[in-house]
Amino acid sequence: MNWFNFKFKSPKFGEAFSTVFSDPVIYLSIIAIVVLIAVIIHMNKAKLTTKIMLHVSMAVAIATVLKMFRIMKMPMGGSVTLGSMIPIIFIAYIYGTKVGCLAGVIFGVIDLILGPYVVHPVQLILDYVLAFGVLGFAGYFKENIFVGGLVAIGLRFICHVLSGVVFFASAAEGQNVWVYSILYNGTYLLPEAIIAMIILAIIPVKRIKTEISKSLY
Q: Exposure of 13 by Cβ count < 10 A (0-12 exposed, 13-18 middle, 19+ buried)?
C-alpha cells in the first residue's frame, strides 16, 4: 500500500462552491460564523491593529496553501499535510490566545469553503470552527511554543474524535466507535504533530517573535 503520496492538491473551486451553496446548512452556518467573527473583531478593535490583522491574514493564507500539500494518505482516511497548523500556532504564540483563536476560526471557515463535508450543523462546528479555533490555545504557553503546539493539536484531535463518535458511527462497521474515531483521527494528526514539532525546532521561533514584536511599536 502506497501511503506516501506527496503532491499539491489544488481545490476544485467550482465543485466546492456548488456544494456550499446547494446546502443551506453550510452557507447559513458560514454566514453566522462570519458575522460572529465580525462581532469579535469589533469588540476587540482596540487590540486588533491593521498590522496584526495583516499578519493574521498572511498566516491563514500560508496555512491554506500548506494544507494543499499532502505528504501521505493514511489507510483509514485523512491526509498528512506539510505543517498546515504551524502558521496558526505561531500567530497564537506571538499575539496570544484570542488572536490565535480568531486566526484558527478563519482558517477553518476557508477550509470549509474549499472542501466542505457536512452532515449536521454541530458536526460543522466541531470539525471546522472549534477544531481549528482551538489551535489558538497555543497562545496560553508563551514561554514554550512546543508545549503550546502539542496542547493545541491535542484539542483539535478531541474535537474531531467527538465529531466522529457522534456523527460518523456508521463508518465504524461494528468496531467500537470510540476506538475507530481515535484511530482514524490519530493516524493523520499524530504525524502532523510530529512534522509541526520538527519544523518549529528548525526555524528560529524566538528571533522571529522578537522581530515581529519590535515592528509593532
A: exposed
| pLDDT > 90 fraction of the chain, expressed in percent and rounded | 38
- The predicted-structure confidence for 76-95, as pLDDT tens digits, reads as follows 777 888 889 999 999 999 98
Pick left, alpha or beta for residue 171 (phi over 0 → left; psi -120 to 50 → alpha; otherwise beta). Answer: alpha
Q: What is the mean pLDDT of residues 2-31?
A: 58
What are the beta bridge partners of residue 4?
72
- pTM of the full predicted structure? 0.83
d(CA 92, CA 36) in angstroms, rounded, equals 19
pLDDT of residue 15: 57
133 Cβ neighbours under 8 A, 6+ residues apart = 101, 104, 105, 108
Here the cell at position 36 is 460572529
Domain total in the chain: 1
State the CATH number of the domain containing residue 33: 1.10.1760.20
Q: Are 148 and 141 in contact (CB under 8 A)?
A: yes
Distance CA 28, CA 35 (A): 11
Question: Measured between alpha carbons, how far is 146 from 178 in angstroms, rounded to an integer?
Answer: 27
Instruction: Using the structure block, give the residue that is written with the C-alpha cell 485523512.
Output: 78
Q: How far is CA 153 from CA 1, 15, 183, in A?
A: 27, 29, 15
Q: Which residue segment(s) compose the domain that 116 sits in? A: 4-215
**Higher-pLDDT residue of 129, 208:** 129
